[in-house]
Design goal:
InterPro entries: DUF5957. Keywords: Membrane, Transmembrane, Transmembrane helix. Pfam families: DUF5957. The chain crosses the membrane at residues 7-33, 39-58. By secondary structure, this protein is mainly α. 84% of the residues lie in helices and 0% in strands. The chain has two helices and no strands. The protein has helices at residues 2-33, 42-63.
Length: 64
C-alpha cells in the first residue's frame, strides 16, 4: 500500500513540478529571447522520475 501511495504522490507531484519548471523556463525565455521557450515533455519526464523516487522511498522506509 505504501508503494502505491508513493507512486501516486510521485506521479502527481512530479507532473506539477514539471509544469511549474516549464512555465518558469518559458517566462525567463520570453524575457531574455523575446519569445516563449518550452520543454513540452518536462512534466511527463519528471512524473516518471517522481514515480521512481516515490517507489524507492516507500520501499526504503518499509525495510527499516
Amino acid at each position: 500500500m505504501r508503494m502505491v501511495l508513493g507512486a501516486v504522490f510521485g506521479l502527481v507531484g512530479g507532473f506539477f513540478l514539471g509544469m511549474v519548471i516549464d512555465q518558469v523556463i518559458g517566462v525567463i525565455g520570453f524575457l531574455v529571447f523575446d519569445g516563449p521557450i518550452h520543454f513540452r515533455g518536462l512534466p511527463v519526464i519528471l512524473a516518471v522520475v517522481g514515480v521512481a523516487a516515490g517507489v524507492f522511498l516507500a520501499s526504503r522506509s518499509r525495510a527499516q
